[in-house]
Amino acid sequence: MYTRRVSDNLEKMTAKRWPYSEACPEALAELGRRIAAVGKRRELVHYSKLVNGLELRMANVGGGAPFELGVPDWSDEDRKILGDLLGRLSLDTYQRGKFLASALVTAKGTQEPGEGFWSFVDELGLFTSTSPTRRLMFWTEQVRLAHEWYAANAW
To answer: Distance of alpha carbon 84 from its chain centroid, rounded?
Structure first.
């Protein structure tokens, strides 16, 4: 049942529209490269450091004018865009290696992934517990899987 639910959800999410990822595939590819480099070093990266200097252009944002996420401050739209990009990237890595790339991206304050990560995990059907200990164990396992995969594979 669990495997079927994940399989069904994976199929739905693959068919889902990813408006920001589709609007700027270059940004998606660059984030993939950046996270892969972090994974190969067996490290984690903060959201702001991940996107530092990444210029995006999307027809559906600001009329196509170039912009950077989190500059000067993180807006709700910035968070939504990054969530879309990380979600699409994690969907790809889950299909390729059964891990979530976004597990390697953390908030400065907590040193843990944000609620967007947990919403994605829940939507995919991978984990539903609200226990802080179980959440930490799940996330730690995702980090381990990502580090191992990136160390052994080219992105």
So the answer is: 8
What pTM, to 2 d.p., does this model score? Answer: 0.92
Are the CB atoms for 68 and 116 separated by under 8 Å? no
Query: Cβ atoms within 10 A of the Cβ of 144, count?
Result: 13
CA distances, 66 to each of 27, 119, 126, 132 (Å): 12, 29, 35, 39
Domain count of the fold of the chain: 1
Write the pLDDT tens digit of every residue in 98-120.
999 999 999 999 999 999 999 99
DSSP state at residue 72:
S
Measured CA distances, 50 to 1, 10, 79, 126 (Å): 36, 26, 13, 25
Range of the domain at 52: 2-152
